[in-house]
Amino acid sequence: MTVLDTRTPTHTSLDRVTARTARVRSYLMCAPTHFDVTYAINAWMQPGIHVDRDRAVAQWQALVETYRALGHRVDLLEPAAGLPDMVFAANGALVVDGRAYGARFRHVERQAEAVLHAGLLREQGIEVVEPTHTNEGEGDFLVLASMILAGTGFRTSLHAHVEAAAALDRPVVSLELVDPRFYHLDTALAVLDDGNGEAPADIAYLPSAFSPHSRRTLRQLFPDAIECSEADALVLGLNAVSDGHHVVLPSQATRLASQVADHGYAPVPVDVSELLKAGGSVKCCTQEHHA
Fold this sequence. Notes:
- The protein has 7 helices and 15 strands.
- By secondary structure, the protein is of the alpha/beta class.
- Helix 2 (53-69) links the parallel strand 1 (26-30) and strand 2 (73-77).
C-alpha cells in the first residue's frame, strides 16, 4: 500500500487539512473469479479483448488488503459463474442504516446479480426493499450525511430516486449524466468526505459529465469541490473510495491524487487497470454499508 506525501497544500488552509479524519467503514466486495468482457453494455467494453483474469484477481486482492490495512471491514460475496461483472459489487444495492434499497439492473446480462446481493444482505440481517424501478445501487447513489446524490441519464431511472428516498427515508438530489463514458454517477463524482464528522461534505467531480442544471446544483452545494481533469476521469480516477482521510483511487490518476492531497487528504493509489477493460475501478468494486 502506497500513501502519497500529504505535503503542505497550496490552496487549502491548515485548519481544513487537520480536520480530515478517517472513520472505520464496512465494505462488501466480490472476487473477479469469472471476470471477462463477453458483451458490451458501456462505452468501455470491447467484447473479445484479452482479459488477464489472474492479474484482475491479484489487483482486486491488493485492493481488499489496502482496505483492511486501513482498518476497514471487508465482507465477501461469493462470485457466480456466468456473471463476469459481479466484481463490481457497488452496483448490487444501496445500504443505509441497516436497510437496503435493492438493485434492478438495466441490462439483462447483470440482472441475476441483484438476487444474489439481496440474498446475502438478508442473511446479514439487513432488510431489503425490493425496487420497482431500474437502478444500479451505489453506481448511481452516493451517500452523504445530509443527502443522497443520485445519478440518472444512462442506468438509473428518475423514478428510482423517488423510490430510494422513500425506502431509506433520506433526501435525494438528482443529477443528470450526459456523457456515455461516465455512465454511472460514481465514474463522474467521488465523495471525499460524507459530512458525518466535524468536516463538511466534500466531493470531486468532472463538470462536463453533467448537464448544465446539474453542474449548477453541484456548484451551489459544494462550492469548494475539486474539479477533476478529463484526463484523470478517463482512467476512472473519480471512481474512488474515501474514509474521510484516505482516498483510495486508481494509480493512473496522478493529478487528481495531487489535488486531493492539496485538500488535506491522503491519496492511496492502487492499480486496478485490468478491471478498466469492463469500465470499472476502485469504487465499482466496493459496496459500502453506511451507518
